[in-house]
Amino acid sequence: MNLPDRILFLDASSLQTHVGIFEEGRWLYHHRSDKEALNSVFQGTRNCLDHTGLKLLDLQGFVFCAGPGSTLGIRITTMAINGWKSFPSHQNIPVFKYYSLEAVACLLIEKGTSTPFTLVSDFRKDLWNHLDVDGDGNLSPIKVIGREEAERISHLLLHIRQRNQWLEPPGNATTIPYSLKDLPEVILKYQLLLRVSSAEAFAP
Question: Which Gene3D superfamilies is this protein grouped with (predicted)?
Fold first, then answer.
């Protein structure tokens, strides 16, 4: 997939909000905030534009995380993108989505994590979003599983905390950070982006 230059990136699916501008598989600037998404999405966008010397009119694409993850955070990013897309100057700018668990899985593969492994993230009490990576590095579809099924997993089980309320992870899981430092390169290498007509949240 050929991507445009100067893409605005928004991910508020986890406890931190990530906003950045990237092109050709590298960050021009990446802003991370612990503040609530309602403020950090727009402040982060302003910081990125100020740091790079760009204006909103200079952007040629939008990328957002559709989930799974924080429902409120994802809704704020989709509302922001759809709002910007309503401007006459931005109506023809392409929008792309990716999924948080797929992104983390590919980042882990790229860093040499042994396969097979499973990723889970918080959905609601005793339920988790779930993605398997098999021994050949193939990714399964994302689904929701319960505690009993999660605790039967015998290989490496990794947990991502994506919601503010504390949900106890499966007892056999190791919690890892949601780090996106190397994501632009991985997005290109693993072709994680899907073009969409408008920004909408993932529905399990």
Answer: 3.30.420.40
